[in-house]
Amino acid sequence: MGKIKGFNDYQSLSDWLYEELRKRYKSKARFKRPFRVAFSGGTSPFGLWERMVWAGTDWDYMEVFFVDERAVPPDSELSNYRLLKERLLEPAKLRNAKVHRIEGELGAKEASKRYNQLLEKEIIRTGLDLIVAGIGEDCHIASLFPGTSALREKDLFALPVTEAPLAPRITITLRTFRAAKEVFLILSGERKRKALSLILDGDVDQSRCPAKAVLKLGNSMVVTTELGQSGY
Questions:
Q1: Could you report the per-residue pLDDT of 89-110, keeping only the tens digit for each?
Q2: How far apart are CA 203 and CA 222, in angstroms?
Q3: Helix, strand, coil % in the chain, rounded to nearest 5
Q4: CA dist., res. 193 & res. 197, Å (int)
Q5: pTM
Q6: Which domains does the chain have, with CATH numbers?
């Protein structure tokens, strides 16, 4: 089982995430080697991204991947690519960073096929250096939702999710999480306390709480502001 690390507030959590990411990035960049990181959408990584922008660091050796995406054009308000572009890529001036966008405008099936091929080519030998993803209120991770067949996928790195809120989605799978060197899962805010309870409840299996499936891989850590708030 992965670890759980508690913080007093979202600011200190974000500060810690930034320092951990920066150290790992620098260890690769000093040898001019790519640092491969995958981000989720949503608000969970906002604090980390803000610090990356403020730092003014040269991120030229960063390669950006996506944890999931909706089957929408890249300029859609629902697009995780647009969110990352507006919050990180443009403000931090990541002009030379390589961005591996999920082509959601092609539809979930075709986009997931192409992203699976990309991941097979890019990470099958070494895996991603880091995945940073938020945990949903229902304990979903990426677009791996409770009770769905996507949790049982063993061969693919990415697949389509047709039964998803707002729009069909493309998501990385547990195989991609397993192949990563490290995974940081963000759980912050009162609305996420139920998810933390599910993670800590030994009677709840991973079909009800997909975040547990990632934690069981052994390369992951939940970073949360809710340990003390929830009485744990």
A1: 999 988 767 999 999 999 999 9
A2: 19
A3: 35, 20, 45
A4: 6
A5: 0.95
A6: 3-224 (3.40.50.1360)
